[in-house]
Amino acid sequence: MRILFFICLLAAGLEAPPALAEAGRIVGDAPLRHAPGSYDSEGRMLGSGTKVDIGVCFGEGAYCYVEAAEVAGYVEGRLLGVAAGHMDQLEKMRWDSLRQRSSRLNEAQMVAAWGDSLTAGAMIAADETYPAQAEALFGFSRDVENDGVGGQNSTAIAARMNAVPTLLSLAGNEIPSEGSILVTERTTTAVTNQGPRALAGTICDVAGRLAAETADGGKTYTYRFTRNRPGEAVACPADSVFRFAAGDARRERVAWIWAGTNGAAPEHSVADDIAAMVASLGHDHYLVGAIPSGAEHSDARIAAARVLNKSLAETYGERFVDLVGVLAAGTDGSAEDAADVAAGITPRSLRVDALHLNARGNAIIAEAWHDATLHLGF
Length: 378
Known about the structure:
There is one protein chain. The chain has three domains: 100 residues; 177 residues, 3-Layer(aba) Sandwich (Rossmann fold), CATH 3.40.50; 83 residues, no CATH class. Helices cover 29% and strands 26% of the residues. It is built from eleven helices and 20 strands. The protein has a six-stranded antiparallel barrel. The chain has a five-stranded antiparallel β-sheet with strand order 6-5-4-1-7. It has a five-stranded parallel β-sheet with strand order 9-8-18-19-20, sandwiched between helices. α4 crosses α11.
């Protein structure tokens, strides 16, 4: 069958596919077409979850040649997911390149995953985090940016999104012509001892980086602002707004908001911080995730999380993703997992410690975000 298929391609003036190198699956029902860009599929469909072998891709990843069981043809690249275990480094680079150059999806269809260590990943490989696994579910057609920073509360996450203002006072109320200046006062702790120690942004119309130096195990922070380029000294009044570059750059993206595991800063609440994050986007392409509880959390903390999740579900409706529920449903059937679910905490078979998720737990979360995004048509 494959030889006949090659002859048809050559007759049509198309390059024959090379030896197949990747294993993957169909993400969403996919028409199986005779040629790249063709709408002639004769009703042939590959159902969601169908395992396929993937060959060459055309149109910068718009269409890819696949074989599945006794059929072969072309499907849209956005409907392909490549199994991480079947990708060597060279092939991963090829797919990354296709994704980055693709014009099929604009910035508004890419994803920013905002969160804490549950998003950033703890004690697992980078490709086992849920943003990375979700990106694979999208067939690498969408960039899913991991904007998680460990240890951060909801206020710090909101600050990085520019949803909660970060007000800074600089020594001498001036940005020097070059070099760095001490930050004497600040209203948020968006740069912490986990994640990047310096984040790009702008204050008083001067671009630079806000960096944190920590002491006492992260209990004491010293902040400095360093401008990117030398220039004239600039007056900068006390309590001037610092805008984080990432928050502005990713505002148009679909937002996955998973915040609140570490609570909120004093005089803030998790619910208010999430509401500020949503309002800051200026669009309705967002999802809000349920806040999980861990084995080390008190009964009062677990009860409070239940109340908060109920409120978030009522507030955000179909944009609320019950991540606690999908984790509870993902047990391995053991008595230990059942006991954890009854106690209101994440099943231990899905964790690497008292709270953080292992690769399987992250896969469950990735699928929940992915499916909710597609369901709402984002």
